[in-house]
Design the sequence.
């Protein structure tokens, strides 16, 4: 990476405005590779130089990739005047990267949500031509049948006339209330709920389990998150070229 001005690097990392980090630097609070640097216009390589500000090592990188176990009741947006967003759940040191959710889960849906500031990957994962599979678990009011499986396999017609792509429905339990898993290859608004409406049933609970090669880490409690591992990232990049 090209060398960048120290004040730009520190401001990008959320240590203050350019003016503020200039003042901090001038006061002798910043070292680069062990030497105090007072001139914030000094050029540094943020990936290779060891930059310490007020005793804290600056861990510079451009992108952040987060897997969140989204809780119900929180919206998949970056900001909202009234409602809590998934970004509000991030720690300051993660939020400063200004990441955004990849697609949306409904407010009452929980489960796997990818959050990143890599706009290019975000775009590719959502692109209809990539058909990235998404797997959900759902509780259903009503008996889910073999004929529903066949309907989903053909593609169903939603309330607005849109014919969905084929989806794979698996019945885990069938009764007055049923438990199912479904894999869809697109992401229309309220898609799973509307697919069940089209066969006369109601989703009462919805959880996303997988998106492409990513599986929800069961160690993550509702509302918790972690960064993706290198293996997860590699798999994600290769599924959305
Ligand atoms: N389908 C839905 O109906 N809701 C979601 O949140 C995701 C898929």
Sequence:
């Amino acid at each position: 990476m090209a060398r960048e001005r120290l004040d730009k690097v520190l401001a990008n990392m959320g240590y203050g405005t350019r003016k503020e980090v200039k003042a901090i630097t001038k006061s002798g609070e910043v070292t680069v590779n062990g030497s105090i640097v007072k001139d914030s216009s000094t050029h540094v390589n943020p990936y290779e130089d060891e930059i310490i500000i007020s005793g804290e090592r600056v861990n510079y990188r451009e992108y952040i990739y987060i897997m969140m176990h989204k809780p119900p009741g929180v919206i998949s947006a970056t900001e909202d005047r009234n409602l809590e967003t998934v970004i509000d759940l991030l720690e300051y040191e993660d939020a400063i990267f200004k990441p955004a959710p990849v697609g949306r889960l409904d407010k009452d849906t929980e489960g796997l949500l990818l959050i990143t500031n890599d706009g290019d990957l975000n775009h590719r994962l959502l692109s209809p031509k990539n058909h990235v599979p998404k797997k959900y678990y759902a509780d259903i009011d009503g008996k889910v049948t073999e004929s529903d499986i066949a309907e989903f396999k053909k593609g169903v017609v939603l309330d607005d006339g849109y014919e969905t792509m084929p989806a794979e429905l698996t019945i885990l339990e069938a009764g007055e209330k049923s438990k199912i898993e479904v894999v869809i290859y697109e992401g229309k608004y309220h898609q799973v709920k509307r697919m069940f409406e089209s066969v006369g049933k109601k989703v009462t609970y919805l959880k996303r389990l997988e998106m492409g090669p990513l599986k929800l880490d069961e160690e993550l409690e509702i509302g918790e998150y972690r960064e993706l591992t290198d293996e997860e990232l590699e798999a994600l990049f290769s599924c959305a070229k």
